[in-house]
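In the laboratory, one determines a bound structure by crystallizing the protein with its ligand and collecting diffraction data. In a computational setting the workflow is compressed into a single prediction: the sequence and the ligand go in, and a structural description comes out. We illustrate the idea with pyridoxal-5'-phosphate.
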Amino acid sequence: MKTYDLRSDTITRPSLGMRKAMMRADVGDDVYGEDPTVNKLQEMAAALTGKKDALFVSSGSMGNLISIFLHAGSGKEVLTHKDSHIIHHELSSASALAGSALIGLDGERGKLSPETIEKALRPDIYYMPKSGMIEIENTIGGVYYRGDELKAIFEFARKKGLPVHMDGARLFNASEASGMSIKKIASYANSVTFCLSKGLGAPVGSLLCGSSKFIKHARRIRKMLGGGTRQAGIIAAAGIYALEHNVERLKDDRENAMKIAETLSSCSWARIDPAEVETNILFFGTKGRDPEGIVDQLKRKGILCGADGKNTIRMVTSLAVPSEDIEDVCKILKDFKPVKSR
Ligand SMILES: Cc1ncc(COP(=O)(O)O)c(C=O)c1O
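The predicted complex, in structure-token form:
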């Protein structure tokens, strides 16, 4: 039976073209700053985001952690949304390693606003913790920040003297869907990470982008975390290939997510408003049925997806499920008749 893997966009595998680019990569020792392919990727990332410099890091988690080390650090608070990746999926590394406390705030559809942030700011009293930074995730749960929302947060942060880090694991999806350039989006943050290993289809790596001074210090923290690598050009080449070949097709992922959402909206057992789907990630309810049970039954039909623990099911489109296959997925969903699982 053919399977359609909609669990995440992290499951993509490097294409033949990407593997060939990796094989041909020029390499050197990156701890000495001598890997030409890593240097090229970092220059590309800095130019794309409009930042002065960029650093190739092993993962999005490492990029976020380094930014927390540098913007907040020991004894300071990181203000972020309560649904953010740094709160739920990064092992509290902010507190375990950087000494910062993660403060989860409310906000519609995963997004922060100056109003919610303001309520969490600490007064300047010597025995209270200090607010250290703001972290926003874009996209979050597939939802992107509009330009006016980003601008409002960034201007507010500047007034309060707080740096903003953007976890842009899916920054390119945000850009594709919003029509805003990467540079424009990144201009509303002091530092930004984006991942090569999600919808862009590379096997490893993220870029942390910021000012020259920030990246100079980031390089030290990366090494401290054991993230200094040697002939990393082999993997950086995959990143360059991803930026050159896999950005435009993110539109397909958004359109495919929309097709699935529309199909689900016509299924008696599912609940979704397709208008809420903005990029490649969608969530749907199961009208009182056990989501885990539905996930299990769909798996037996060849569709892999995940229950997200909030009574909904998550599906993520990516190059792992090309547009031709989405027609099959929609047909399976239309014909699917859930059996009672509890
Ligand atoms: C929004 C977000 N941020 C950060 C990360 C962390 O990326 P990595 O798995 O490369 O550490 C992920 C991973 O899925 C993510 O979805």
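The chain is about 40% helix and 15% strand. Keep in mind that any predicted model is a hypothesis to be tested, not a measurement.
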